Amino acid sequence: MRVRLRFVLIVLVFVFGIAVLTVLPLIQPPEDRELRGVMHGFYQVLLEIMPTLASQADFAHPDNQEKIKQSLQKMNELSEVLKSKVDSKNRGSIQIAADYFKQHTQMITEYYNLGQAEDARWMLGASFNLCVSCHTQMPVLEMPRVDWRYDLEEGRAKTAFQWAEVQFITRRFDAALEVYDYLIRQFPDHGIDVFDLETVVLRKLVIFARIERNPQRAVDSFLKDLANQKLPSHLINNIRNWIIDFESWHREKKALHLTVEKLLLQIEEKVVPKLSDRALGMESPDLVTYLRYSGLLHEKLSKEDDEALRLRILYILARIERQLASKYLFTLYEFYFKECAESKLDHPVQKECVRELQLLTRPD
Predict the structure, then answer these.
(1) For residues 128 and 16, what is the distance between their CA atoms, to the nearest angstrom?
(2) What sections of 50-92 are H helices per DSSP?
(3) CA distance 87 to 80
(4) What is the model's pTM?
(5) pLDDT single digits (tens) 86-130
């Protein structure tokens, strides 16, 4: 069970559990606001169940059993409604994620009802990956302000890092950034360890490069982080290199308004020749570029109706996100290969997706 989620997710599908506040990208039409109630429901479930996820002992304690069962039942009901609403519209990779999320929530409930609390808690934590893979695809509508210090006092999270991760899951990126900045700039005074600090720094990178695609904001924020000379040396070096990449990006001509065809040609020329099947590390000189293009491709996919172009987007997106997949950023690249491979269109890219899928599923 405790292998890293790879293609095993096709059969079923880092920190606490699941939540979806909104899957609505900035570009979606007004009628999509009907999903808001469903998404807020997921957020409420997260707040209910989060205190029981602190440890296996808490999750398995008899006093919490009824609360957990009720929360899991709500999750199943909400995931069913979410899938039906998403299926009624073309939402690109969001639709793919919603399908597997429904299967995943059902399996969590089955494990828990069978008395396999440890496996259920592990899968519940793994659900975070599925949420993040969907929620970090594109910009988001403005979210209401929240006070992290008040929530900590009220016991809604045990640490500032935990609280910020919940905001990140639920697309309250400005709220998460406020705490991420605090954790970085006050390190090591607040007790966060280096592993979590690396996660925090990379969360910021994902927000600036993939979600907002805002190079100037990234430069301004990371320069302030560098004022803390107590940061680990490898993080200081990485942040300096990212600043250089963001400054170079900021000097470019506007690329956001490229047609799908021109964007794909640009990526096929500049990026595809360098792609491999190995995950990028924090120190990779391609990290900012790959995050940037993955965000653009998700946005194009959500609006594209031409099947041939969709196949090309899915194939390139899968290859880029395979390299972005790591302990810091979970991606659904297997699903994108699968979606492309199952297309009825006779196209060379579809055949490439079939080949990639076969490589992923063959026994080691």
Answers:
(1) 7
(2) 56-60, 65-87
(3) 11
(4) 0.73
(5) 665 555 556 666 777 777 788 888 888 888 888 888 777 666 656
